[in-house]
Amino acid sequence: MKPEILQLSPILIPEINARLEELFTVRRYFQQTDKPAYIKEHGATIRGVITGGHTGISQALMAQLPNLEVVAVNGVGTDAVDLAYARDRGIRVTATIGALTEDVADLAIGLLISVCRGLCTSDRYVRSGQWPQSPTPLAPLPLARQVSGMRIGIVGMGRVGRAIATRAAAFGCPISYTDLQPMNDVPHTFVADLKQLARDSDALILAAAADKGEAIIDAQVLQALGKDGYLINVARGKLVNETDLVAALSAGAIAGAGLDVFVDEPTVPEALFANEQVVLQPHRASATLQTRTRMGEMVVASLVDTFAGKVPVGCVTG
Ligand code: 8YV
Both 174 and 195 in a single domain? Predict the structure, then answer.
């Protein structure tokens, strides 16, 4: 009999879905309207869970799956999974470590360039037919902010932080970072205090895991970043006090923001919709065909290995 899998969030690669169907009985929880009834019916026989990094799985749901052996996160962040509870129950939690590093770093730089150079605003300007009507070329568009040479502050010098640093260095940007401790294998300047890092940076890029700190970017940090400073977030929305961020952007207390993640996705503060100083993305940093395929392959391997009694690659619970 095929092992039963509970799928909490969709996978967009047909080949991966076909492989899952071939190997497992896939219970699509995310498509159910009456989720409690679905769990009552199937909970006892579920051996594996597939979920997204942002979706995770609640402790209450895990508690209703008495035969659960593995939670395969189709993403790198495991902050939405109670790892201590999983460990206590002997449930393996896996993440697609390494699969999405380059894409997330690419998007961080993409957002930085988009915000600083006003790419989306300029795109709207051209599409709306305003260009030929301007008295002088580009008259309504303010001059942009140069990206090359900007002082970049990276929050979280893990895999993604390092990949961002590599890219920023190619733009001639001096790089500083903060983390729980200095990393002796990176050449960049460690700044222990986040406020100090913000003060020393033209752009602060968030690449930290969100299980060790919530709302670390608050009004004080934004004030330290200052009216010429930019915030880029490709990590998790909850790292930021969103109310403080919206207030800072509305008041011009910072220059702009590039955001791929939000506190309560898919809800985005409406105050940001009309703000030309922000570029908004619907949590898409890893959403390329190549990376999502690689992630899907790792999810399949996590399930297969666990059911074969092996420790899967990317296991974070030991
Ligand atoms: C994914 C993520 O969008 O890796 C993560 O932690 O949040 C994202 O890359 C998500 O996990 C896709 O399901």
Answer: yes
Tell me how far the alpha carbon of residue 240 lies from the centroid of ligand 1, in angstroms. Answer: 18
Q: pTM for the whole thing?
A: 0.96
Asked if the structure places residue 285 within a domain, the reply is no
Q: Does residue 207 form part of some domain? A: yes
pLDDT tens digits for 83-99?
999 999 999 999 999 99
Between the alpha carbon of residue 245 and those of residues 35, 108, 300, 303, the distances in Å are 35, 18, 38, 39
For residue 143, CA distances in Å to 122, 216, 275 come to 11, 31, 17
Task: Estimate the crossing angle of helix 101-117 against helix 289-307, to 10 degrees.
Answer: 150
The answer to whether the peptide bond before residue 266 is cis (omega within 30 degrees of 0) is yes
Q: State yes or no: pLDDT of 137 exceeds 80.
A: no
Domain identity same for 81 and 156: no
- Atom number of ligand 1 nearest to Cα 79: 6
Sign of CA dihedral 15, 16, 22, 26: negative
Sheet holding 230-233, edge to edge: 189-190, 175-178, 152-155, 203-206, 230-233, 256-259, 278-280
Catalytic residue, chosen from 27, 92, 162, 283, is: 283
Taken in order 159, 171, 117, 153, is the CA torsion positive or negative? positive
Letter for the amino acid at 177?
Y
Give the mutation target among 11, 17, 54, 259 for probing the ligand 1 site: most ligand atoms within 8 A of CB: 54
Residue 100 CA to ligand 1 centre (angstroms)? 9
